[in-house]
Design goal:
This protein is an alpha/beta fold. The chain has two domains: 187 residues, Rossmann fold (3-Layer(aba) Sandwich), CATH 3.40.50; 179 residues, Glycogen Phosphorylase B (Rossmann fold), CATH 3.40.50. It has 15 helices and 15 strands. Strands 3-2-1-6-7-8-9 form a seven-stranded parallel beta sheet, sandwiched between helices. Strands 12-11-10-13-14-15 form a six-stranded parallel beta sheet, with helices on both faces. Strands 4-5 form a two-stranded antiparallel sheet. Helix 9 links the parallel strand 11 and strand 12.
Length: 383
């Protein structure tokens, strides 16, 4: 039996998850995984990518691009015909909707994989967008959605909650674990990377763009008493870097700019920090939260980030704050500084241990079993 997964581009985190899916499904169910990509390259992300082991990967050529609604690809008919089950990678590509239609016409099972959605945008989309999502969802037999935010979006589309399975969107922690063993002394690691040794460091990791709101961290820190102000480490690059440098200098905040990092180098920079802040105004998930927690960092996350709902437990693994509200972020930072940050980090690390590629593979197995055991309805399309 064959499972086709249609998605837009390969990514480092998805490669790790696909490898876990492929190995587990082949062993437990005799199902092989074929992955089809709708887009070329990595959309300018600059990732160092490798081929997924044990996975047949193919790129589909583009028939046409539709502004605001992705691509329509060649080869969709053959893809559906050659596989027993198809899993579409979301709502935002016309190829996903066409694939779901073809699969129903060819009597194939359809699963919708859904990474997430900014909690603050739920219910605020245009009617036309909601209709496309509703139609796509109606064509699917089951849903591999990420976390509470993914389930909430689908339930609002009328999906039966019993057919929603948590995707457990995950990252590989291999580099983090390797560096934790090599760099048990945080002070020495900071000295090696020329970071402040005797003060708290807040990490931000991501693209320095307006939607991510990195400037909010500087605003919040500047409202603290001078002797309490942590340094902020920006890991990433982007058009706001020079603006952030000027803002930090003007407000008396120590800002460190590490640029783009990945692999073991990124892991070392996480391990230098005391906690992470994800202040985005709009973030479907935020895998930096997974990464930071795996490195033993508690997290302050905005309520516009999908990951905050599942992973940031107030006073336990971190704190949530109102997106865009610098005063509320300041209060969250003060709350963090008043706690035993290292102990919270240990709890955060234990919590994220329940979100791994293997957990995802087990959940996908349960999703597939439910799909294969369900009866086909020949009379109408329904979830």
């Amino acid at each position: 039996m064959k499972l086709a997964y249609l998605t837009n581009i390969p990514s480092p985190y998805r490669i790790t998850m696909m490898e876990a899916w492929a190995a587990h499904l082949q062993t437990t169910m005799g199902i092989s995984l074929q992955v089809y990509y709708t887009d070329e390259g990595d959309q300018g992300r600059g990732w160092a990518l490798r081929k997924a082991l044990g996975v047949d990967e193919r790129r589909l050529s583009t028939l046409l691009s539709i502004p605001g609604y992705g691509r329509l690809n060649r080869g969709l008919v053959d893809m559906v015909r050659q596989n027993d089950i198809v899993m579409i990678g979301g709502f935002e590509q016309v190829s996903y909707l066409v694939t779901a239609l073809l699969a129903r016409l060819m009597r194939r099972k359809v699963i919708l994989l859904f990474d997430g959605f900014s909690p603050r945008r739920i219910g605020k989309e245009r009617a036309s967008v909601r209709f496309v999502k509703w139609l796509t969802a109606r064509l699917c037999h089951a849903y591999f959605a990420n976390g509470k935010v993914g389930a909430e979006v689908l339930k609002r589309l009328g999906v039966d909650e019993a057919r929603i399975f948590n995707q457990y969107l995950s990252v590989s922690t291999r580099d983090i674990e390797t560096q934790r063993c090599r760099n048990a002394d945080k002070r020495q690691l900071r000295a090696d990377l020329e970071m402040p040794v005797g003060r708290k460091i807040i990490a931000f990791c991501g693209y320095l763009i307006p939607r991510k709101r990195p400037e909010l961290i500087i605003d919040a820190i500047s409202a603290l008493r001078l002797e309490e102000r942590p340094a902020v480490l920006f890991i990433g690059r982007g058009p706001l870097e020079e603006t952030l440098r000027r803002q930090a200098a003007a407000l008396g905040v120590e800002a460190l700019f590490a640029g783009f990092r990945e692999g073991e180098d990124l892991a070392r920079h996480y391990l230098c920090a005391d906690f992470l802040i994800l202040p985005s105004d709009d973030d479907p998930w935020g895998l930096v939260v997974n990464e930071a927690m795996a490195a033993g960092l508690p997290v302050i996350g905005s309520d516009a980030c999908g990951a905050t709902l599942d992973l940031v437990i107030n006073g336990v693994t971190g704190f949530a704050f109102r997106a865009g509200d610098a005063a509320d972020l300041r209060r969250a930072i003060e709350g963090m500084l008043a706690r035993d940050i290292a102990a919270m980090g240990d709890v955060a690390r234990d919590h994220i241990a329940g979100w791994t590629p293997l957990h995802s593979a087990h959940s996908l197995q349960a999703c597939l079993r439910a799909v294969l055991e369900s009866r086909s309805d020949k009379s109408k399309f329904q979830p």
